[in-house]
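input
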Amino acid sequence: MKHPLCKTIKGKLLLIVCSLVLILGIGTVTFSYVNFYEKLENNLIHSTESNLTFLADNINQELENIYDYAKWCQQNTDIINYVKLSPSAQSYARYTTLAKERLDEEYLYNPSKSYMLRVVVANESRDDFLQYTSSYYSASQPMTDLITELPYYKDALEGRCCDLSCGLQRSPVGRAATYS
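output
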């Protein structure tokens, strides 16, 4: 038996209109969902790309500050005089103090100092180092032996300029697992 709505023209027209509205509604919802999903996906890609660019620029700026500090250490006359001077010279203590003060001062004004837990100025022919580290990361161990035994020590000394090619390294001393 047929439904009473299908017997009249008005009922048939109402069924056709309801079916068309339902089909148009489903089509509109599907089109909106697909369109919104595509735009959301593009927005997510763009947002991630922007965030990664910002992060890369921030890291590059921090590294640039570290490079600048390393270049400054290589060109500072007080540090150069300290490196060239023999420990047996009479003015050794004065030059060491001047170099240490300048090293500390420049370190404290460096915006990237939180990434440099230990700074060591070394000379291949000597076993004393000029070093900056906070008291938290200092240790009462013989630093000369620890530093010269690092696998990248010779490569770092032989480099003509500061290229930081050894990257971030786990600190051989300190109270916490840190990188320097």
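quick obs: The helical segments are 9-75, 77-84, 92-108, 143-148, 153-158.
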